Amino acid sequence: MEFAVSKKTLIALIILVTISFYITFLFNSCIVSNISKGIPQLRRNQIVQEPLMHYSTSVRVVSLIEGNETDISPKYKWFREQGLKPERQLPSALIIGVKKGGTRALLEFIRIHPDVRAAGSEVHFFDKNYHKSFQWYRSHMPPTLEGQLTIEKTPSYFITKEAPRRVQMMNPSTKLLVVVRDPVTRAISDYTQAKSKKLDMKPFEELVFVNGTVGSIVDTSWGPIKLGLYYKYLSRWLKFFPLSQLLFISGERLITDPAVELKRVQDFLGLKRVVTERHFYFNTTKGFPCLFKSEGHSAPHCLGKTKGRNHPYVNPTVWQRLRDFYRPFNMRFYQMTGINFGWA
Ligand SMILES: Nc1ncnc2c1ncn2[C@@H]1O[C@H](COP(=O)(O)OS(=O)(=O)O)[C@@H](OP(=O)(O)O)[C@H]1O
């Protein structure tokens, strides 16, 4: 089959093809030129800026305020985003007592250690809330990362009859911390706290004795006095735990030399000695050591008003009677612990 193509049509076809080639060429060279303009730009940025660049990590300021199971704090959300999985664990160490011994101070001091996480408030699991299950108890613990130790303090555990067995059931290797204080000043401190809640309370001197007079016998059924019989409560714990699993902290030395006591605590818990004298300063207004910085506080931090209350004046005769009363019990406690706390 033959096609008759006129000369004119052929010329027009050649011109059309040439123009279309030319347009395509112009278009492509335009794209290439734009790309090549960008490449030196990128290279320039890399070469010129690299040595001058200060690599800065983007720091997100996150709140340290605890969240509960459903409302987890931003700090832990951030950990999760980083692939770290904080999880709540049952405590492996407990501050079990004694009431008014300085347990809050110890907790606040030890929790500035980066490997320690503490339940903020007293959970009262082994005394009041035991029926609520270990799952409930765990839900009250802060989330921890691997290698972090969970600690809780409830001073009434020390005197709760069932607590030693219950703690042993949770974990027989739980480490137990006991802050002890001269039972006489402890009793006055206990009384001061009770009086702050019940203003019409009788004077200390009256409550100490069975007949309300110095001449009668010391009332060992009165809570503030009874609680100072440390040997009695300790013997219960020693039925379930070896002495080596308990650490006794001097409440007095926690005030006069907190760093020394904190060193003992860190060693006992198998922690690096991070909390040192550098973390403390003595606040002369409060009359107690305070922290330069603690969890949730970027500024110097002292314990609250309920810690370090002014005690009422106590008649020196009453004071002496109590000293004499406690002496044999203190001796027994010193023998059991192998430590002379110097109260007698
Ligand atoms: N750094 C520091 N700051 C303030 N208070 C301190 C500190 N270190 C020890 N203490 C003493 O702690 C006593 C309160 O003891 P607790 O925390 O165990 O009391 S409680 O059982 O939890 O109510 C409290 O008793 P009071 O002085 O009777 O208030 C203090 O003497």
UniProtKB/TrEMBL annotation:
<keyword id="KW-1015">Disulfide bond</keyword>
<feature type="transmembrane region" description="Helical">
    <location>
        <begin position="9"/>
        <end position="27"/>
    </location>
</feature>
<keyword id="KW-0472">Membrane</keyword>
<dbReference type="GO" id="GO:0000139">
    <property type="term" value="C:Golgi membrane"/>
</dbReference>
<feature type="binding site">
    <location>
        <position position="181"/>
    </location>
    <ligand>
        <name>3'-phosphoadenylyl sulfate</name>
    </ligand>
</feature>
<keyword id="KW-0333">Golgi apparatus</keyword>
<keyword id="KW-1133">Transmembrane helix</keyword>
<feature type="domain" description="Sulfotransferase">
    <location>
        <begin position="92"/>
        <end position="327"/>
    </location>
</feature>
<dbReference type="InterPro" id="IPR037359">
    <property type="entry name" value="NST/OST"/>
</dbReference>
<protein>
    <recommendedName>
        <fullName>Sulfotransferase domain-containing protein</fullName>
    </recommendedName>
</protein>
<keyword id="KW-0812">Transmembrane</keyword>
<dbReference type="InterPro" id="IPR000863">
    <property type="entry name" value="Sulfotransferase_dom"/>
</dbReference>
<feature type="active site" description="For sulfotransferase activity">
    <location>
        <position position="100"/>
    </location>
</feature>
<dbReference type="Pfam" id="PF00685">
    <property type="entry name" value="Sulfotransfer_1"/>
</dbReference>
<keyword id="KW-0735">Signal-anchor</keyword>
<keyword id="KW-0325">Glycoprotein</keyword>
<dbReference type="GO" id="GO:0008467">
    <property type="term" value="F:[heparan sulfate]-glucosamine 3-sulfotransferase activity"/>
</dbReference>
<comment type="similarity">
    <text>Belongs to the sulfotransferase 1 family.</text>
</comment>
<feature type="binding site">
    <location>
        <begin position="307"/>
        <end position="311"/>
    </location>
    <ligand>
        <name>3'-phosphoadenylyl sulfate</name>
    </ligand>
</feature>
<dbReference type="InterPro" id="IPR027417">
    <property type="entry name" value="P-loop_NTPase"/>
</dbReference>
<feature type="disulfide bond">
    <location>
        <begin position="290"/>
        <end position="302"/>
    </location>
</feature>
<feature type="binding site">
    <location>
        <position position="189"/>
    </location>
    <ligand>
        <name>3'-phosphoadenylyl sulfate</name>
    </ligand>
</feature>
<feature type="binding site">
    <location>
        <begin position="100"/>
        <end position="104"/>
    </location>
    <ligand>
        <name>3'-phosphoadenylyl sulfate</name>
    </ligand>
</feature>
<keyword id="KW-0808">Transferase</keyword>
